[in-house]
Design goal:
The protein is 32% helix and 27% strand. With 223 residues, it is an alpha+beta fold. α2 crosses α6. The longest helix is centred in the middle third of the chain and has 12 residues.
Length: 223
C-alpha cells in the first residue's frame, strides 16, 4: 500500500491521467552527464525510448532531463527504483512528468521550463481525465505542422550536426535521430521547429540538399 500514499487525495480522474504517463522528469543531474549516460542509467527500470538532457542556449546542460519509457508501469518503476540513486556522484530526483498529462502527452520539453508542481501535486488544470483530454485535442493539430521527417542521412550524422544544418530554416526545438536496437542510426530523424513556418521553410529550402555527402529528403511528419 506504499504506492497509494503518494496518490491519496488526487481523485480517480487524476489517477487515470497519471497511469498513462510514460515519461519522467529527472533533476539534480551533474552538468557532465550526457543523454547517452542518462539513458544507460535509466534503463535499469525498463525500456527507454529516448532520453533528453535539457540544454541552454550555449549547449550546456541545465541539470535536468526527460526520459520516456515504453510503458507507464516502467515510468512508475523508475520513480520507485532509481529515486536518489547516484549518477555521476549526485542523487537523482525523479518524478512522473506531470506536464505530459497537462499537454496531452506532449511532455515537459514542449514548454521551456520543467514542471513547477513538485512531487505529489495533481496534474495542471486540476487533473481529471477530462481536463487533460480537452487540452490534448487543442494541442494535437499544432504539433505535426512544426515537425518534419528527414531521411537518407549518413549513418555518421549526430543530432548536433543535424540540428546545426536544419537551423538554417528556423529555430529548432529538438532533433531525434532514430536508432535501431543496437544504438546505430537508422538514417532518418524527426526535427521539430519552434514554429510551423520553420518546418515549412525546411521543406521548401533544405529538401534534397547535400549534407555530409548525401542528398537528404525532408517532408512533413505525417505520424
Amino acid at each position: 500500500g506504499g504506492r497509494m500514499g503518494t496518490n491519496m487525495g488526487m481523485g480517480t480522474g487524476s489517477l487515470q491521467v497519471l497511469n498513462t504517463i510514460t515519461s519522467v522528469y529527472v533533476g539534480n543531474l551533474p552538468f557532465s552527464v550526457a543523454w547517452q549516460d542518462l539513458k544507460d542509467h535509466m534503463r535499469q527500470a525498463g525500456e527507454v525510448l529516448h532520453a533528453d538532457v535539457v540544454l541552454d542556449n550555449e549547449g550546456r546542460s541545465k541539470g535536468f532531463g526527460i526520459v520516456e519509457y515504453a510503458t507507464p508501469q516502467q515510468a512508475q518503476a523508475a520513480c520507485a527504483l532509481l529515486q536518489e540513486k547516484p549518477l555521476g556522484g549526485r542523487p537523482l530526483l525523479i518524478h512522473l512528468d506531470r506536464q505530459a498529462a497537462a499537454n496531452g502527452g506532449a511532455g515537459t520539453l514542449a514548454t521551456p521550463f520543467p514542471t513547477a508542481n513538485g512531487r505529489g501535486a495533481p496534474p495542471m488544470g486540476g487533473g481529471g481525465g477530462g481536463g487533460a483530454g480537452g487540452m490534448m485535442g487543442r494541442n494535437r493539430p499544432d504539433d505535426p505542422s512544426r515537425r518534419v521527417y528527414v531521411s537518407n542521412l549518413a549513418w555518421s550524422v549526430a543530432w548536433q550536426d543535424l540540428k546545426d544544418f536544419m537551423r538554417e530554416a528556423g529555430d529548432v526545438a529538438f532533433v531525434d535521430i532514430m536508432q535501431g536496437p543496437d544504438g546505430r542510426s537508422k538514417g532518418c530523424a524527426i526535427v521539430e521547429y519552434a514554429t510551423a513556418g520553420g518546418a515549412q521553410a525546411a521543406i521548401n529550402s533544405l529538401n534534397d540538399l547535400d549534407f555530409q555527402g548525401r542528398s537528404i529528403h525532408i517532408r512533413e511528419d505525417r505520424e
